[in-house]
Amino acid sequence: MLKRLYLKGRFFIAVGIITALFLFAFPFPSLFPIARLAFFLLILLSVFDIYALFRLKDPLFARRLLPERLSNGNANDISIYLENRYPFSIRLELIDELPFQFQKRDLLYRTSLRSAETKEIIYQLRPVKRGEYDFGALNLFASGRLGLVQRRFRFEQEETVKVYPSFLQMRRFELLAISNRLQEAGIKKVRRLGNSMEFEQVRNYVIGDDPRFINWKATARKGDIMLNAFQEERSQQVYSLIDKGRGMQMPFEGLSLMDYAINASLVLANTALLKGDKAGLVTFSNKMGNMVQAGKQRSHLNTILEVLYNQRTQYLESNYELLYATLRRKVTQRSLLVLFTNFESLSGMKRQLPYLKGLAKYHLLLTVFFENTELKEVLDSYPADTESIYLKTTAEKFAYEKRLIVKELNLHGIQALLTPPADLTINTINKYLEFKARSLL
Predict the structure, then answer these.
(1) If 0-12 CB within 10 Å is exposed, 13-18 middle and 19+ buried, where does residue 236 land?
(2) Nearest 5 degrees, angle CA 148-CA 104-CA 62?
(3) Which of 318, 333, 330 has the alpha carbon at shortest distance from 367?
(4) pLDDT of 187 strictly over 70
(5) Of the candidates 370, 440, 355, the residue with the CA atom closest to the CA atom of residue 405
(6) DSSP 380-394
(7) Average pLDDT over residues 280-293
């Protein structure tokens, strides 16, 4: 029992007051009976408080409710169910033993429960690394009406939860797509500029349609302008190529660039499947990683999710020659290749340019790399001294070189996307929809 008994601050305040009374009783003897009475009263009340808290065997119940898996980079809801079986109201302090990855040692919640009352406490956790997270026990500290002592309860709730790529972000985009509200997430509406040759139907002309596809015979017959409508091409292959080299280890807002790329790849795969296309995945660094051949079954998304879960950054330079050779051998149908990488310098990109040009010859290649958003504060600042001038000049050089990389890639017929990490998913999906609308595949 002693291991579960804790004295509260109210008890020590009472001890301090009684001690002061005893001290003042030396010059003022009339205070001695009051001090002695207060001392015995404190002992009596403390014993009563201890008895009330410890007389029942299981007066409290607590359970942590965890989802089956956590979503990387998102706020995940964790709930704790509490039940008070005491015949009186209690005040509670709750400490949850979180996985070490969160580095939180101050997760303390205070609440109160009436007799026979139940309550649910919900808090949020945002993991920034994929992997297994071990939750520990739930520690409750209950105090009664007097609040002099506390009883500790420990509920063994050890549980391991896996953190997967951001499936919450994927679901959000999926729900917006189903309800035709993608504009709320920043997805642009792109008017179809091209067409496939697969005829769908003859329908009424509306403003914005291409007048080249007016069906004049049907127009003369109906007395209204009629248009030949073509079905959007489907079953096209969309591959996400994820660079796992050392350049993708750079962190932004807690997440590495590779984790941003993994989250965007999952949303891209889901969007491609919703559009009727096939989604595939390739990971690489100094050697080839995993390859998931493009498929269109809904269960295919779970295969991609499981592969993305196990990816780890390598600390060597990526081998683009090996990537080119592997794709030429294994991806024979013209496909959209979305390469997530991070070129920090023009010279670094030019070393890989021959292999990128080779891929762009047989496929539609979109090279996605990242803006260094940490430089924005430096670029927007006013230099106050010589050192600040040097820093700003260097930052402008890096930012300018990133824009040069985009122009250099475009000159060689390679699509390029320079984006802040936070906007990666939205900008990638916009590019994919643009390619679909323009029938570039």
Answers:
(1) buried
(2) 55
(3) 318
(4) no
(5) 370
(6) HSPP-SHHHHHHHHH
(7) 94
Mean pLDDT of 385-404: 84
DSSP state of 74: S
Tokens coding 125: 């956790």
- Confidence at residue 237, expressed as pLDDT on a 0 to 100 scale: 93
Q: Which residues pair with 419 in a beta bridge?
A: 370
From CA 44, how far away is CA 41, in angstroms rounded? Answer: 5
CA distance 164 to 311: 11
For 265, the token pair is 């790849």
- The region that residue 88 occupies, defined by phi over 0 for left and psi between -120 and 50 for alpha, beta otherwise, is beta
- Residue 440 tokens read as 């570039």
Q: Which token pair is 131?
A: 């992997």
Residue 256 has pLDDT above 50, yes or no: yes
Phi and psi torsions of 103, nearest 5°: 55, 45
Q: How far is CA 304 from the centre of its chain?
A: 17
Q: Which CATH class is domain 167-190+234-438?
A: alpha beta
Instruction: Compute how many other C-beta atoms are within 10 angstroms of the C-beta atom of residue 144.
Output: 20
d(C-alpha 176, C-alpha 186), whole Å = 11
Distance from chain centroid for Cα 355? 32
Element (H, E) at 368: strand 364-370
pTM of the complete model: 0.77
CATH architecture of the region 60-164: Sandwich (2.60)
